[in-house]
Structures are given as C-alpha cells and as structure tokens.
C-alpha cells in the first residue's frame, strides 16, 4: 500500500507515492495560532516581563533611550506592527518621542534608504522619532569597549554607548550559526564594528585551519556554541535595560511576544520558538524527502538552502536527501552564488577565513553536507549546472530523485521521512 505525498514547489505542487511500510514519519511543526490583537499582546508582555520590572518602572522621564531594531533584510520581523505600541508605552512612562532614538542594526549590511525605513518600521515610527544607522564599516562611529575571553575586540556604535537606556528588539527563530536569532544579535552583529563582527563570526569555523566548521555553531545550540557565548559576553558589556522580541508560528505570523530582562526573556522566547518550529526525531531515515515550502521560500537557492540545513538532521549517516525547490532565480544573490566558484571546500574555507560572510558560511556548510550525504535537488532543468557546481545531484522529478537515491544506496527497501515545510521546521534528534 502506498501513500501519496504532495509537496509545495514554486507556485505549484508535486506528488510522490511512498510505500506505507517504509514511511518513518511526516515531520511537521505544531499548528500554532497567531496573535489576534498585536498592540494588546505587546502591552501585556511589557507589563508582565520575564526577570525584570515592567518597562514603565525601568525608564524615567529624563532618560535618553535607544531602541535597536533590525534592518530591511529582516522585514519579516514586522517592526512596523509593534514599535508604535512600544513608543506609546515609553511615552506613558514619561519618555517623550524627542528623547528616543532608533538605531538601525545594519551589522555588515549596506545602508538602507529612507523609503526602506518606512517599509521596515512604518510611517508612524519614521515620523515620530529620529533614526540613525549603524554601518559597521564606518569606523569613526564606533567606540572600543573591551575584549572578550575568546579574544574578540569589541567596538560598538557610539549612539549605544552614550544612551541612558538601551532596548533590544527583534525576532526569535532558529539560526544556523548562533543557535537562535533575536536577543543579543541586536548588539552583535547589529550595532558592532566590522572587525568585531568578523572576529565573532570566525568562531563558527574550526579552530584548526582546513578542518571546516565548528560543529557546535548550529541550529538550537547555545551552551557550547562559541559564537553565541561570545555574543552574550559582548551584550553584557552594554547592559541592555530591556528586551522586546517576537516569536513566530509556522506561517510567519506573530505567535507571541516576550519582554523583560535581555537574557531571561530572550531564553523564554527561544523555548517558545523551539516548541513551535522543532519536531522530535526518534528514528533517522535512509532518505528524507523535503520541500522548502514553495514560493517565495524556494525563489532562489540561498533561501531554499535552509531546507537542506534542516532536513539533513533527520537523515542517517551516508543516507540521501531529496529536496524539491524550484529556484526560478537560482543565481541570486550574487554574494552567495559566487562562493560555488571555488572548486574545493578548502579554498572556500580559506576565503571565508580571510573575509567572513554569512552567505559564504552557508555555502561552506552546504558543501560539507553534500560531502557527507547524497543530496538530490528536484528543480528546473536550467538549474542543473549550478546545482552540480554546488556539489548536489539534479533530478527533474521526485520519482527520478528516488531512483537516484536507490542507486546510490544500493537497495530499494530504504526508509523514508517527509519534511513538507523544510525551511521552517528543524528536526531535533531524541536518539
């Protein structure tokens, strides 16, 4: 008996028949309801914080207050929907709009335009408060504040250093390097200098050159994650006064808000995010068939590659991974696709050590996954050359991909797991 599985692919879907007796499981996230009244949910979080007095008891009327907020590359956080409520609560506590500064946490990203400020924060916020941008390469804007135990020299934007109170905002999801996003990432990379970002991010590489990745810098890893621990040490130097972070459901809508102490509230948000986006795996499968979730999650290889990073966690050693991703704009963005021009992983790693970028790290990680597993990508025929250059195998259909997997594994009775929303769901091994 077979079960027909339908997976999203671009704006359409594709199906595959899987023998029921060989199906290990369908790995999907919980169906988490979204927040109905966003301002009310934000006010409730601010009034009932984790590990901290309420916001109104922390700020005072004479405080020069800085809010750190993500840039246009994190527009999915939807600051425009919750920042007005935060501003209103600061006003209620006696802090006038004229005393509030929003610092755009660009990290190493480009400066954003005035139009992008409106898209990211909304016209109300742009009209009410002053906005400045923390551009990592502008060294004159950064102040030296110390050095971490891992040797990272810390430079932080001067507006943060001169503030009376610093409030962190952002969104919490799994992060392929730092374990989870949000929280301390508003400080680093958000408002840190370029040298500080580079030193911290290089902690994601093996301490020994030529050995590739630091295995502890991965989704969900915190206690032994050098990058995260370095970030926490740096954030502690700033002593943020408060945090307001959003947690999301599988559809990308607000599931909850957490507020309070910058460490305790964030960790509570991480637990919420893990409860929503992770799925326990009691048995590794020989083959995992995954979808990135369709358009726009599979618009290009960079976006869709999150599925490969997640789905590989459910595959047994030397198994096979089949991923359906249309990738109609496979070469975008260029600062990612260019990394596959390096013919060896060693060359890719050495270039990354010289100038670290997140796209470069993702490209290196994908290279190692493809080295350890058979990765078969079901995509458009014109993408075959790119995918093979990236170390993947190409297949025009799921049935063709299963035939390739059977050939590589040397048998036809292999076990199968399905990951329908691979870009949003992280398998967590319980074995």
Q: Can you describe this structure in just a few lines?
A:
With 431 residues, this protein is of the alpha/beta class. The chain contains 15 helices and 20 strands.
CATH topology of the largest domain: Rossmann fold
Uncertain ranges:
none
Individual helix count: 15
Strand fraction: 25-35%
- Main sheet summary: 6 strands, parallel
**Count of discrete structural domains:** 2
CATH hierarchy class name of the largest domain? Alpha Beta
Strand order of the largest sheet: 3-19-15-16-17-18
Q: What overall form do the CA principal axes indicate?
A: globular
Helix- and strand-based class?
Answer: alpha/beta
Please state the oligomeric state of the protein chains shown: single chain
Task: Give Rg in angstroms.
Answer: 22 Å
Mean pLDDT: 95
Distance between the termini: 28 Å
Q: Give me the count of strands.
A: 20
Q: Would you identify the CATH H-level superfamily of the largest domain?
A: LarA, N-terminal domain
Binned, the helix content reads: 25-40%
User: So, CATH architecture of the largest domain?
Assistant: 3-Layer(aba) Sandwich
């Amino acid at each position: 008996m077979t079960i027909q599985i339908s997976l999203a692919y671009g704006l359409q879907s594709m199906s595959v028949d899987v023998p029921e007796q060989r199906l290990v499981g369908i790995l999907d996230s919980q169906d988490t309801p979204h927040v109905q009244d966003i301002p009310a949910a934000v006010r409730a979080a601010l009034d009932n914080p984790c590990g901290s007095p309420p916001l109104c008891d922390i700020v005072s009327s004479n405080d020069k207050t800085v809010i750190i907020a993500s840039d246009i590359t994190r527009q999915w956080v939807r600051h425009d929907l919750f920042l007005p409520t935060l501003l209103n609560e600061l006003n209620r506590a006696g802090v006038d709009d004229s005393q509030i500064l929003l610092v755009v946490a660009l990290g190493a990203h480009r400066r954003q335009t005035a139009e992008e400020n409106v898209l990211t924060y909304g016209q109300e916020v742009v009209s009410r408060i002053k906005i400045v941008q923390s551009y990592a390469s502008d060294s004159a804007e950064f102040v030296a504040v110390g050095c971490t135990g891992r040797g990272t020299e810390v430079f932080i934007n001067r507006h943060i250093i001169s503030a009376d109170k610093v409030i962190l905002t952002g969104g919490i999801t799994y992060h392929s390097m730092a374990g989870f996003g949000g929280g301390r990432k508003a400080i680093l990379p958000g408002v840190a200098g370029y040298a500080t970002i580079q030193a911290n991010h290089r902690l994601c590489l093996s301490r020994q050159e030529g050995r590739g990745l630091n295995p502890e810098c991965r989704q969900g890893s915190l206690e032994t994650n050098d990058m995260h621990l370095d970030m926490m040490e740096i954030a502690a130097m700033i002593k943020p006064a408060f945090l307001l972070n959003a947690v999301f459901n599988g559809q990308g809508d607000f599931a909850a808000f957490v507020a309070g102490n910058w460490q305790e509230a964030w960790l509570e948000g991480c637990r919420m995010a893990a409860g929503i986006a992770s799925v326990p795996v009691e048995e590794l499968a020989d083959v995992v068939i995954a979808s990135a979730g369709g358009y726009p999650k599979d618009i290009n290889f960079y976006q869709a590659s999150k599925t490969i990073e997640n789905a590989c966690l459910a595959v047994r050693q030397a198994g096979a991974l089949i991923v359906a991703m249309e990738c109609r704009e496979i070469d975008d963005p260029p600062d990612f696709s260019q990394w596959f021009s390096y013919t060896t992983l060693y060359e890719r790693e050495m270039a990354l050590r010289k100038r670290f970028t997140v796209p470069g790290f993702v490209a290196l990680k994908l290279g190692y996954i493809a080295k350890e597993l058979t990765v078969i990508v079901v995509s458009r025929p014109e993408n075959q050359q790119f995918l093979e250059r990236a170390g993947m195998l190409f297949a025009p259909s799921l049935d063709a991909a299963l035939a390739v997997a059977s050939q590589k594994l040397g048998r036809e009775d292999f076990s199968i797991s399905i990951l329908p929303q691979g870009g949003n769901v992280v398998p967590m091994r319980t074995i």
